[in-house]
Amino acid sequence: MKFYKKIITILTELTTSHPDIPLGRHIATAIDSQNMNDLWATPDKELHNNLLNYQAGLDMDIPHHDDDLENIIRDGENLYNVGFDEYEE
Question: CA distances (Å), 75 to each of 4, 34, 78, in order?
């Protein structure tokens, strides 16, 4: 029962700190990241640990805007142009 309450607490914290992510996605991502294929056989302690690790990783992640991603892709496509002007004579 003690892990049940801890799991509920983590899920509550996740929905509070990341309201734009659905609860199901939090659970699915935490489970998928650990290759837990059989949720029915997963002990509460293991589910708690996986959710805790997922939460820690999510809290360390820095949110990026879509514009940032587009700039990174555009810059990556133009990498072949970087630095070669100085060698052309």
Answer: 47, 33, 5
Six token digits for residue 19 = 């309201």
What band does 73 get if pLDDT is binned at 50, 70 and 90? confident
User: How far is Cα 20 from Cα 27, in angstroms, rounded to an integer?
Assistant: 14
Percent over 90 (pLDDT), the chain: 37
**Helix residue ranges per DSSP H, the chain:** 2-17, 23-32, 44-60, 66-77
Q: Which residues contact 59 (CB under 8 A, 6 or more apart)?
A: 17
Quick: pLDDT tens for 52-65: 999 999 888 776 66
CA–CA gap between residue 15 and residue 47 (Å, rounded)? 17
SS3 content of the chain, % helix, strand, coil (to 5): 70, 0, 30
Residue type at 80 in one-letter notation: Y
- CA Rg value for the chain: 20
